[in-house]
Amino acid sequence: MRIKTDLPRAVRIIENTWIPMPDGARLAARIWLPDDAEKNPVPAILEYLPYRKDDGTILRDTPQHAYFAGHGYAAIRVDMRGSGDSDGLLLDEYLVQEQDDALAALAWIAAQPWCTGAVGIIGISWGGFNGLQIAARRPPELKAIITICSTDDRYNDDCHYMGGCVLGSDMLAWASTMLAYNARPPDPLFVGPRWRAMWLERMEQTPPFAEAWLSHQRRDAFWKHGSVCEDYSAITCPVYAVGGWADPYAGTVLRLLERLSCPRKGLIGPWEHNYPEWGTPGPAIGFLQECLRWWDHWLKGLKTGIMDEPLLRTWMQESVPPDPSCASRPGHWVADPCWPSPNLASRPYYLGDGTLDRSPGPERRLEISGSQRCGSDAGVWCPSGSVAELPDDQRCDDGLSLAFTSAPASETCEILGFPEAVLELACDRPWGLIAVRLCDVAPDGASALVSWGLLNLTHRAGHEEPAPLTPGERLSVRVPLNAVAHALLPGHRWRLAVSPTYWPHAWPSPEPVALSLFAGAPRKSESAGSRLELPVRAPAPLLDAALAPFGPPETAAPLPIEVLRPGGRERTMRHDAVTGLHELVHGADHGRIRQIDTGLEHEDRFTNTYSIVKGHPLSAQTRCDHEINMARGAWSIRIVTSSTLRADATAFYLTNVLEAYEGPVRAFARTWRRAIPRDMV
After folding, report:
1. Which of 32, 122, 282, 565 would suit a FRET pair with 316, their CA atoms being 20 to 30 Å apart?
2. For 67-78, what is each residue's pLDDT tens digit?
C-alpha cells in the first residue's frame, strides 16, 4: 500500500459534529474537509453505517476519507441512529427510519457552506446495501453512488437464507455480532455524562435481531422491504457496483448491470468481503483512484473517461490449488461491453454414471443418503481477508456427495456468470434440501470449489409459498449457483457434486433424507435430463487488451495507534469417532489497540462453534460467543454475549445472553429465549 502524504489539498478533521433529524434526534458525524472548503465549496461523499466512527471503522475511515478530502471532497462518516454517539435505538437492519434519517442527513450536508450541494454515497456491506436503498428514494442531493459487496435481494442473497435454506453458518453469527455491537456505549468524550443513560437504554430496548430474521422463513414483506430488486426502476442516479468473487455478493453486480436503466458500471475482482485497495486474495488495486474518477465525473463534471470504458470489468480467475489462506489468485482482467454479454453462451454437461458428458446417456437412478459432515470444507460464507477462511480441498465433501466429473479439458474453458444445475430427482421425505457444488479437479486429483448453491426443495416453485414434497414423487428443479468467473485450464476437469446436506451453511432437514437422482436421458419425457449449464465466455482478446491497468493501491496516512496486544485467528475441526460428534470452531481475536490521539483502547474477539452428531440432524447447534472491551483512563467497559440456536422437528430454539460491566461491576444482564416454529425448513 502506497501512503500518500502529498495530497493536492490540505485536510482538516472535525472529530464530531451533530446532524439534526426532524424528530429532534441527532446523528454523530466525523468530517474530513479540504482546508479551504468554506471559501471554495466542494462536493461531498457520505458513508453511513452502524459500526461506530470512533472505534469500529476508524482504522479504515481515516486513510480513505482523508484521501478523498485531499482530492477536493468533503468526506462525512455518519453513525446511524442508535449506534456510536448518535441518539436513539437501532432496532434492525434497513428500517424505514434508517432511510428517512439518511435523507435528512443528505439535505443537511448539501446545505453546508463547504458543500456545492452535490453528494455521493459510498459503502461496503451494510453501507453498500443502504446506498442502493437510499438511491431508490431519489433524494435530489444524491448524484451518484458506489456500492461495494452489497445485495439487491435481502431474502435470497444475504446472510439469513439461501435458496430458502436457513444459513446455519451466518444467520446467528451475524445477529450475535450485532447483539454485541449494539451493546457498546457512546463515547463520553463526545456525548458527555449522558453516555451511561444512553447505554443502558440501548441494552434494555434493542432486541436480538435473530428473533425477527428467523420468524420470517419465507420471502415476505419483511424481506421485500429494502430489496431494490422489487423495483429496479426506482434507482435513477448513476451506480458503480463493485464486488469480489470470494465474497458472497458478487452476483449483485451482474443483476444490477442487467436490470438497472440508470448510468452504471460494474467491477468484480478476486477479493473477499473488503475494499479493493485492501483486497485479498490479490491482486489489490488502486481503488481510491478509481473512485475519484467516478466522483470527478458525476460530482464535478470532469472528463475522466470512466463512462467511455466497457460496462463490466472482471478478474478471470485461473485454476489454482485449493488453499484456505490463498493470498493471490492468478488470472487476468476481462471486459464486456454490456450485460448479459454477447460473449456468453450456455453449454450443457449431462449427468451420467459419475460422469459429466456433452450429450446425455441412458437414464439411471442414483441414490444418496446425506452425511451430516458434508460441508466441513466449504470455508466461511463471508470471508473478510483473514486466515483460513476460504474453501479447502473438496475431495472429502465430494466423497460424501453424488459426484459427476468431466473428461480433462483439451483447451482453456472460461465461464462468467451464474452456473445452474437442472436436476431430476425424488426425495423420501416431505421436506428436504439440496446442495450443489461446482469444482475444478486438477490432474493430481485436488478439487477446488468454484461455485455452489442451495435449494430448500419445498421452495422449488418459489420462496413465497413453499409446498411439501410428496415422498417418492419425481420432480425437476433448477438450482442456481453463485456467480463466478473461472478459467478451467487444459488437463483439468469440471466436477458437479450433489448432496442433501451441507452443514453448517445449510441448517439440516429435521430427518435424515435420501435422494434419488435421475441421470441420463429420461424415458418418455420432454425433459433434457439432469445437467449442468455453464455460462461459457468466448475469448475477446482485443477488448480485454484495451483495458487500462489499475494503479497501485494507495491511501492517505493511517490513524496513529499503539498495538497493546496482537490478535490471532482460529479455525479448527474436531471429530469424535466414538460419539460421532463433529465440531467446527471459527474465531478471531482482533487484539487490543490504543488510539494515540484520543487514548481510547479497544479489543474485540469472538468464537463461533458449529456442532452436529453423525446421523442426527436434530443435534445441530450453533453457539456464538463475543467479548468487547473498551477503556480510556479510569473508564472501562466490558461486553459479553452468548447466542445459541438449536432445533427439534417442529421449532427453532433461540437463546441470547448479554452481560455488561462498568469497571468490575456488572451494570446490566439479560437473557432472551424464543421458540420459533419451523416453516418447512
Report:
1. 122
2. 999 999 999 999
**65 grid coordinates:** 476519507
The dotted CATH code for 344-537 is 2.60.120.260
Q: How far is CA 149 from CA 88, 252, 269, 273, in A?
A: 27, 8, 11, 6
What pLDDT was estimated at residue 387? 73
For 474-494, give the DSSP string. Answer: -EEEEEEPPPEEEEEPTT-EE
Whether 437 contacts 497, CB under 8 Å: yes
What pairing do the DSSP bridges indicate for beta strands 264-269 and 239-244? parallel
Nearest Cα neighbor of 177 from 610, 668, 592, 627 is 627
C-alpha cell at 394: 473438496
**Using CA atoms, how far apart are residues 226 and 212, in angstroms rounded to an integer?**
15
DSSP 88-117: S---SSS-HHHHHHHHHHHHHHHHSTTEEE
Cβ contact 487:517 at 8 Å = no
Rounded to whole angstroms, how far apart are CA atoms 90 and 125? Answer: 17
Flag whether pLDDT at 611 surpasses 70: yes
How many residues comprise the chain? 681
- The predicted model gives 609-626 an average pLDDT of 98
User: Which of 257, 279, 239, 229 has the alpha carbon at shortest distance from 335?
Assistant: 257
Cα atoms in the Cβ-side hemisphere of radius 13 Å centred on 633: 5
Inter-residue contact 195 to 171 (CB < 8 Å): no
Retrieve residue 644's grid coordinates: 445459541
Task: Report the chain's C-alpha Rg in angstroms.
Answer: 25
CATH no. of 2-154+225-319+328-336: 3.40.50.1820
Torsion sign (Cα): 20, 22, 27, 32: negative
Buried b (16+ CB within 10 A) or exposed e, 352-387: beeebbeebeeeeebebebbbbbbbbbbbbbbbbbe
Question: pTM score > 0.90 for this model?
Answer: yes
Contact partners, residue 545, CB within 8 Å, separation at least 6:
none
The DSSP secondary-structure symbol of 14 reads: E
